[in-house]
Amino acid sequence: MNEDNRYVIQSVDAALVVLMQVARRPGCGVSEIARRVGETKAKTFRLLRTLERHAMVFCDASHGYRLGDAILVLGTAASGQIDLVKLASPIMEDLGLKVNETVQLRLRDDAEALCIAKFEPSRDLRVHAVIGRRRPLYAGSSKAILAFLPPAERDRQLPEKLIAFTRNTLTRRDQLEEEVRRIRAGGYCVSRGEVSDQLVSVSAPVFAIDGSIIACLNIAAPSFRTQDSDINRFIKLVTQAAASVSRGLGYTG
């Protein structure tokens, strides 16, 4: 017998495997979950009912399973142990050194994106990031968060009137919807002078273990020295860096 398996309770182990499957693929039914975890449908159903009893999962109106309220308690406790900033900081520094520009991590906070971490290069002329600064989700690099919200949630978070920061800010709903489609299709956002006339930014989404959008990583640079070739390079590097942060959070999509 493997020494490490002597103290493993098989039923608990199986339940946790099912729970992780629900976290990674919310909305799946019993049959799909059973197929993915390699258990019988009957056993999987019993495991799900046990998890449901403790509010770890719940069955929605379409008979799919999703994470329950008890997970929020665990998530809040885990947030103090798995620090997003600590995870992202070395990735941001590596990215910032490669592009020699400012890198920011923006966390979604309802209808806004909050800057919670930054890297600034040593060069004299650079974009100055401010920890704690907020931006609406519809403007600039924060659109990388807005685009990956569920449609109903996206509509709920947008204000009735979109306020312009510059002449380049998208204030028409149809234009914003088209931009959201482009961002979702490409997996990144390019913003040219939407928040500041002299600023260009390239951002990419950061996902939690359940696939929900929680943040974005962005490179910000003065527009006068940012050419199309630079933007193409930024896109590749920032999407790779954001994917690394997502993987660190357990996202496997």
Note down, in words, how this protein is organized.
This protein is an alpha+beta fold and 253 residues long. The chain contains nine helices and eight strands. Strands 5-4-3-8-7-6 form a six-stranded antiparallel β-sheet. A two-stranded antiparallel ribbon has the order 1-2. Strand 7 and strand 8 form a beta hairpin. The longest helix has 21 residues. The protein is elongated, with a radius of gyration of 21 Å. The mean pLDDT is 90.
Overall 3D shape: elongated
Specify the helix fraction band.
40-55%
Proportion of residues in β-strands: 15-25%
Ends apart, CA distance between termini: 35 Å
Write down the oligomeric state: single chain
Q: Quick summary of this structure?
A:
The protein has helices at residues 10-24, 30-37, 41-53, 69-79, 84-99, 143-146, 151-157, 173-186, 228-248; strands at residues 57-59, 65-67, 102-109, 112-119, 134-136, 189-192, 199-207, 213-222.
